[in-house]
Amino acid sequence: MRIINCLKAAVLAVLVGSSLWSCSGDKGKTRYVPVVLDGEEKWSILDTKTGDVLCQNDFDEMPSVVEDGMFVVRTKSGYYECYKIDDSKNAIGKGKYTQLGTFGDEDVTFAVKEGQGIMIVNKKFEEVKKLPKKVSRTSGFSEGLAAFCKDGKWGFLDTKGEEVIPAKYDQATPFSDGRAFVLKNEKILIIDKKGETIKSMSLDKYNPIAFYHNGYAPIAKGDKVVFLDKNGEEAFTNSKMESDGCYEINDGKTVFRRDNRYGLISTDGEVLVRPKYLSLEYANKNRYIACNDDFKFGVIDAKGDVVIDFEYSGLKQTSVVADRYFAKDGNSWVLINEKGEEQTKDSYKELNLAGSHVDVFYSEVAEEPVFEPEPDDYSVDSAVVEEVAEAY
Predict the structure, then answer these.
(1) What pLDDT digit, counting tens, does each position of 65-75 carry?
(2) 87, 222, 231, 349: which is deepest, by most CB within 10 A?
(3) Looking at the domain assignment, is residue 230 inside a domain?
(4) Rounded Cα distance, 298 and 274, in Å
(5) Which of 212, 223, 273 is nearest to 247 (CA)?
(6) Which residues 6+ apart lie within 8 Å of 12 measured at CB?
């Protein structure tokens, strides 16, 4: 069935760390961002709060985004190491790691050494648990649990490596807001962290297009979108909302699509910004990054008033400092505030705004054959607008 394949594609997209549908959200903010300075070839790390360049030109390969003061980078030999932001000369996690995750909100992560299976390690890089050979894949941890695949079925592990939800599902997404979508016997199930089914839905009627955030999950119902509450009940919908991946509730509002243009609508159904933009993305409270018909990016508020003029070929807000934006002008990125003032003396030819190098982990000794992915390039050297332009 086509719709089953859609859900499987959705799960894969989430497991590899890309939000296939979500074009908004307040997750993933960070103080430190890996950059390549203009005129340089190696990677440094920018402190978006102070504007200081740390670990300047220390890395040949792109570091992950810094989480809890730590980041992962691949060495010339092809193995991954972990460093602290205040000491880029001495790795705290050395070994022949062919895959290594960042720690995020957890004290543990997954790692794979050459020719071995998946293991869980702590921040001292002590082995917490080596997973059985039958475990062929895992996602990263989310809300204390990680999806894992064993004998072709999916379940969930805790941070000690214990199976808290047995592997019995055909597909499974990571948990968010205490809920996960799973697929079993051609039914979409919403489950809680105990593995109890909250709601069972027909694949013929519904198709998830994103995941729970602030208590609601958007789901496609035909060519329209409805929001489910945490009990799986339809909470609200609007005939103006066409199926798309932009839906996510923030501050009682969501971006929505109508006739291939994007606007802003409240959960009460009031259109706050008419759908006139090529793209619209939640940046932070009362701020949205928009792209106009001239393929220029700017920032608007929830009333549609312009905060940052539409004069950039790319714009991203990932800093924990709410009014700091990466703006692309020509071939370079700069860090600006909401007045359009540059916050550093430097410009950057590459950024890593995507997070970890590895968000799905593959056993190298799994009894079940698995797909071996090529390393992804998470940099945003190409302007976002080019992707938008191709769609039109």
Answers:
(1) 898 899 999 99
(2) 349
(3) yes
(4) 16
(5) 212
(6) none
